[in-house]
Amino acid sequence: MAGVTRWARIAAYAIPLTVLPSSVWRITAYTSDAQIADGPTHAPSGSLELYVFLLSVVSELAAFAAVGLVGVVRVTGTRLDTR
Hints:
Elements: H1 6-31, H2 46-69, E1 73-76, E2 79-82
Helix pairs in contact: 1-2
């Protein structure tokens, strides 16, 4: 029976959790009125907010790809069984 080791499965589930704080910070930084870093204060445009939101969503989806790569898949002979 071929499978994924326990440490690889734990690492795959940890990857989205490590990407999550940066996504939350990114969305908060561009959508809130609070000045988080030094620099010019200006209201972000709607297209910039959309870009930041989509960037966060895409980065989370890419992180969840690791979970899909080590998903519960067992190869038996020539048949592929998923559970």
